[in-house]
Specification:
Layout lengths: L1 E7 L1 E4 L4 E9 L5 E6 L6 E6 L6 E3 L7 E6 L4 E6 L8 E8 L14 E4 L4 E5 L1
Parallel strand pairs: 2-11
Antiparallel strand pairs: 1-3, 3-8, 4-5, 4-9, 5-6, 7-8, 9-10, 9-11
């Protein structure tokens, strides 16, 4: 079993920056991802990173603004967010890919086996 605990988040003005962190306890992790869900919206893929950290993948709306990084020695993954916009407001959750999957990453929620609770990110205009 894997437990994911996030930290960070909060309220920031448009154009500002925030860093979300996710610490994992348990087995070693496959690819990792961040998803977000705004009120009344479907959960949305944000970013993913491969097991060794060499490959990253972003949804179009956050490219060049968000960076996903991982530290396997510490079993952590972070999402550095800059140039934030009001439309980035959502609950953000980190997730760990299903063990045994051989892809570098996935943007499908059903390819992730473990999920954190998710910090709230609110961007004011």
């Amino acid at each position: 079993q894997v437990q994911l605990v996030e930290s960070g988040g909060g309220l920031v003005q448009a154009g500002g920056s925030l860093r979300l962190s996710c610490a994992a306890a348990g087995r070693s992790l496959n690819f990792m991802g961040w998803f977000r869900q705004a009120p009344g919206e479907e959960r949305e893929f944000v970013a993913a990173i491969s097991r060794n950290g060499d490959n990253t993948y972003y949804t179009t709306s956050v490219k060049a603004r968000f960076t996903i990084i991982r530290d396997n020695a510490k079993n952590t993954v972070a999402l550095q967010m800059s140039s934030l916009k009001p439309e980035d407001t959502a609950v953000y959750s980190c997730a760990a890919g299903r063990p045994g999957r051989l892809y570098s990453f996935s943007d499908r929620a059903d390819e992730y086996a473990y999920w954190g609770q998710g910090p709230q990110v609110t961007v004011s205009s």
